[in-house]
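Here's my example:
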Amino acid sequence: MNPDAAIKAFVAAERQAIVRMLSDLVAFPTVNPPGLAYRETADFLSGVLKAWHIEHRVVTVPHGDHPRFSIIASLGAGESGLHFHGHYDVVSAESDEQFRAVQRDGRLYGRGTADMKGGLVAMLFAVRAVQQAGARLSKRLTLTLVPDEETGGRLGMRHLAAAQLLPAPQFGALMAEPSGGAVWNGCRGALTVLIRVTGKATHGAIPQPTPNAFEAMVGIVNDVVALKQRVVARRTSLPTTPAEAANSVMLVGGASGSGVDSNVVPASAWFSIERRFNPEETLAQAKDELNEIVDRHRAKGVNAEVETLQESEACMSPPDAPIGRVLAAVLEEVTGKAARFELCPGVLETRFFCQRGLPGYGFGPGLLEVSHGPEEYVGLQALFDCTVAYALTAARLLA
């Protein structure tokens, strides 16, 4: 049996095992923040790779009561040719029931089934399929499984990149985000900041002339909201789904706080700003627009500081790179539909490869619109199709 046929036969025979592993993975409540059940999840994933005789290592990053664990694995010999990437952390759930996977009407429901434990399991079984099919690889197929993607990747992917632990795959990387059938060959840039204003706490009965940090912050917020109206009117010319996702994004005050009590002049106040900008914009432009507002208020005597939590440029990879061409051909064969290359409306960790000049693509089972929601699910047929597609892409690209 040739490798392609062997891969398809293996995935068909392992469908129940794929669903079972995903159900087991959903049961780990890997909520981030703060980073729950990370150790147990890493042990589970490491155990799977060990049982399959796939070479790997676990990278530990201390972080108080919730250390972080990333896994780097590889199949084959030589330099890295293709890289698979996935994250195992999830956002908080509406109830504990979401950590008990439920199969219904051709779907598996549960927190993380779409974003992105479903894609992660598909990639694991794709590596196993390539191994079991006896495909002869000219270069290594490498894999990273990381935490903290939901909060910018500082102690996950960003740590691996800074520590120079990431491979440099010749053909690029695939990430299993829930792309709804599209291939995301680009993503927006990101800028997340906290703006903090400080004053002096005094009794509320004699508040003057003590500076009120909250009132000073409101002045900054008003100018930021005015900037937001201009920002969200900007649209990318690149294809993206849904159509309204073409507009730049700016979320003001997703997190905020002030003061200690109603009768005390607040000595501090702060709020967050989340910018997701299109490839037609730059990180420098996004930062300059915010800094101009803060500097203007500083000139009026406001004591304000800007703390950057996350920043990255937008990135794009050509659809006609070798990995793009092979993936497109495989998807048409597996799903019967032509591949759609689009801009991801969010931010992808493929940026850590694109920033080094390596192509990066997001493609995975599940729908972005149900991710993070109370009825999150992954379609089982999409899960199986993705498993086959990953494995065939690896086998053909690295043959």
About this structure: The radius of gyration is 23 Å. The CA atoms of residues 25 and 117 lie 7 Å apart. The mean pLDDT is 96. DSSP finds ten helices and 16 strands in the chain.
